[in-house]
Hints:
Blueprint: E1 2-5, E2 20-23, E3 26-32, E4 35-36, E5 41-42, H1 47-64, E6 72-79, H2 85-93, E7 102-107, E8 117-124
Helix pairs in contact: 1-2
Amino acid sequence: MKKVVHTDAAPKAIGPYSQAIEANGMLFISGQVPIDPSTGKIIEGGIKEQTEQVMKNIGAILKEAGYSFTDVVKSTCLLDNMDNFAAMNEVYGKYYHNTPPARAAYGVVKLPLGVMIEIETIACK
């Protein structure tokens, strides 16, 4: 059975998609961008600040669905500039202490709203 997951502690979807879908013990979180859910605006700062906000948004969705970062099994990171890879990794790594998930990271030409990073996440119980 498919369940839509939504929380006001993460940004509203900016298109025809859900924040996350839970199905068969798995949580599929749509790509999160660095929008502050309290203002609806992209946060100011560089890649570290944007990555931190993305991870907070992912954390809020995980929590709403009854999951945590320890349940994450796969992430896909999209960067508008691969020169930001090391700085993104520094922030991202703070959320995965013991057993980090499988991950792919891609450099892309452009991301929604002109952001520097977008991360999608899959968690499993």
